[in-house]
Design a protein that fits this description.
single chain, alpha+beta, 6 strands, globular
Length: 142
């Protein structure tokens, strides 16, 4: 097993967020399954298909984002032998401004491959600051 062969979906997720917070595109590349059907949806963004498009977007993000700390919370994992779905909350703040926190609701999907667990989907959406103020009770948004 080499350094990019992740034994569990949680190992792949740890590597994904280390690459994100460390601004390391090569490490990010190691997490993603190299396939035309991989998908990534950044907050408020379009759906990106294929590893090439996804890594190009991460290259831009990592180049234009300063040092950030990414803390994860509320993680729930549903897994089989071949797939794992992780839902969680990303709490992201600039290193120089730890009080300024950006929160995103996230779904990450991983697939077991011959090379270990690989990410096949990352979907992040902004989290409302106060859900009770964002929609009326009983209103269906999606």
């Amino acid at each position: 097993m080499n350094s990019s062969d992740f034994a569990t979906s949680s190992d792949a997720e740890t590597a994904f967020y280390a690459a994100f917070s460390g601004g390391n595109l090569e490490a990010m590349r190691q997490v993603w399954l190299d396939d035309d059907d991989t998908s990534c949806i950044h907050p408020m963004g379009d759906r990106l298909l294929g590893t090439h498009a996804i890594l190009k977007s991460w290259e831009t993000i990592l180049r234009n984002t300063g040092d950030v700390i990414v803390e994860l919370s509320d993680r729930v994992i549903h897994a089989t032998d071949q797939f794992a779905v992780h839902t969680l909350v990303e709490n992201i703040h600039p290193l120089e401004d730890p009080e300024n926190i950006f929160r995103f609701v996230v779904t990450n999907l991983y697939q077991q491959t011959a090379d270990g667990w690989k990410m096949i989907l990352h979907h992040a959406s902004p989290m409302p600051r106060d859900v009770s103020q964002e929609k009326a009770p009983g209103q269906v948004v999606h």
